[in-house]
């Protein structure tokens, strides 16, 4: 049924039927959670052999005792593993702890307070308010970093190719205090889009039109999380940066947080030699080195890029049926209705859903009342404010298949009922 072309009588009949369905869901006593993109129990069990995998051998291939201090930027074997898997020159890579978010926060903090480009390069030494471009809908943790550090966020819309670059370039040309842009370039959080080659190239060129010490925060968190073998590849941002002479502007981040154990993985940052030198200099005041034993555990488990890919194929076999259920319910319940839109992701952890304007918060609240917790409406925008109140992030990775079936049935009813009631009250 196309709600937009329906008569009032048809809408009233639909409202009565949907209200009855909704009340039945409310009385069922469900408690389902689709709030965050956590790996499921089946996924983390794929890495259970990490426990005991060293078998008492604590010496690296290079003869280093991994139980002792040192190795601020990680062990060579872990650098090679990430370099091969993400197609990055091994000389550019620094290994961190379990969280790429920590490396992103540290990078932003160091750039703001101390500078990554030598003496006088700290953002806060310039006169004016430091700002970041934030493509939306986006990752709430990126926005939290900016908010915590007092960096003003400027939202820019995205389409299926990535951020709208005409607007990004116009803003950056006009304001030298825009010092960064957040990017999730492959299987973006939450839309699932893959940045086009043109968008990657234009982002790599931004430092040429920006103020001093501009940085691209390239959070490639989902690069290896493929659901469809035909998924589009991502262009190499470092290749474009070299062409434009902007290699010092690019900071790449990634981790095994959703590959092995989410709370006990390994993270990396890739950057130019000058960025790495500055980062390590600042980092050395707070750390003597990361967990080298955990790095070796991951080397033993994943081995190389081929082993990494095989491990991710097992993840996909667990994840894809969950996303297929979401797509099935959205198509069967809302396709052709004229009241909703979404992108079918080929990888990543989320489905980005847009309702009619002004309804996202209401839909999320209705779902909660029927036993389904969703990511708060607005979370995918800076300061938690979606000006259209339309975007909802669905995260189907953690619940069981049966739970996703139940949750999506409720979600579709909530979307329809909220929309019909809005139309009847217009």
From TrEMBL:
<dbReference type="InterPro" id="IPR015422">
    <property type="entry name" value="PyrdxlP-dep_Trfase_small"/>
</dbReference>
<dbReference type="GO" id="GO:0004069">
    <property type="term" value="F:L-aspartate:2-oxoglutarate aminotransferase activity"/>
</dbReference>
<dbReference type="InterPro" id="IPR024551">
    <property type="entry name" value="AspAT_Ic"/>
</dbReference>
<keyword id="KW-0808">Transferase</keyword>
<dbReference type="InterPro" id="IPR015421">
    <property type="entry name" value="PyrdxlP-dep_Trfase_major"/>
</dbReference>
<dbReference type="Pfam" id="PF12897">
    <property type="entry name" value="Asp_aminotransf"/>
</dbReference>
<protein>
    <submittedName>
        <fullName>Alanine-glyoxylate aminotransferase-like protein</fullName>
    </submittedName>
</protein>
<keyword id="KW-0032">Aminotransferase</keyword>
<dbReference type="InterPro" id="IPR015424">
    <property type="entry name" value="PyrdxlP-dep_Trfase"/>
</dbReference>
């Amino acid at each position: 049924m196309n709600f937009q072309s329906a008569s009032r009588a048809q809408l009233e009949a639909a409202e009565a039927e949907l209200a009855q369905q909704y009340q039945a869901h409310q009385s069922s006593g469900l408690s389902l959670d689709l709030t965050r993109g956590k790996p499921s129990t089946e996924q983390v069990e794929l890495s259970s052999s990490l426990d005991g995998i060293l078998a008492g051998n604590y010496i690296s291939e290079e003869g280093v005792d991994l139980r002792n201090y040192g190795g601020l930027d990680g062990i060579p074997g872990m650098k090679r593993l990430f370099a091969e898997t993400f197609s990055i020159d091994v000389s550019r890579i620094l290994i961190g702890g379990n969280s790429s978010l920590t490396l992103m926060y540290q990078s932003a903090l160091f750039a703001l307070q101390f500078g990554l480009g030598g003496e006088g390069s700290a953002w806060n030494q310039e006169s004016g308010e430091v700002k970041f471009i934030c493509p939306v809908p986006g990752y709430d943790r990126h926005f939290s970093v900016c908010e915590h550090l007092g960096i003003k966020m400027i939202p820019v819309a995205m389409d299926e190719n990535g951020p709208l670059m005409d607007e990004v370039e116009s803003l950056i040309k006009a304001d030298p205090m825009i010092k960064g842009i957040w990017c999730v370039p492959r299987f973006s959080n939450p839309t699932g889009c893959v940045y086009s080659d043109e968008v990657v190239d234009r982002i790599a060129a931004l430092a040429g039109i920006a103020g001093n010490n501009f940085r691209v925060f390239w959070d490639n968190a989902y690069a290896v999380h493929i659901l469809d073998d035909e998924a589009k590849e991502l262009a190499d941002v470092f290749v474009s940066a070299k062409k434009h002479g902007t290699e010092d502007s690019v900071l790449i981040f990634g981790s095994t947080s959703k590959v092995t154990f989410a709370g006990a993985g390994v993270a990396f940052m890739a950057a130019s030699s000058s960025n790495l030198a500055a980062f390590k200099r600042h980092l050395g005041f707070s750390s003597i080195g990361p967990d080298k034993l955990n790095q070796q555990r991951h080397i033993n488990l994943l081995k190389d890029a081929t082993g990494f890919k095989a491990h991710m194929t097992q993840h996909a076999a667990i994840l894809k049926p969950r996303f297929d259920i979401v797509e099935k319910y959205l198509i069967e319940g809302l396709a052709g209705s004229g009241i909703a839109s979404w992108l079918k992701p080929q990888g990543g952890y989320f489905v980005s859903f847009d309702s009619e304007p002004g309804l996202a918060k209401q839909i999320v609240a209705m779902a909660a009342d029927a036993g389904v917790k969703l990511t708060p409406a607005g979370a995918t925008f800076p300061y938690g404010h979606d000006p259209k109140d339309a975007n909802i992030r669905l995260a189907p990775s953690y619940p069981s298949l049966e739970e996703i079936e139940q949750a999506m049935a409720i979600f579709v009813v909530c979307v329809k009922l909220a929309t019909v009631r809005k139309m009847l009250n217009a």
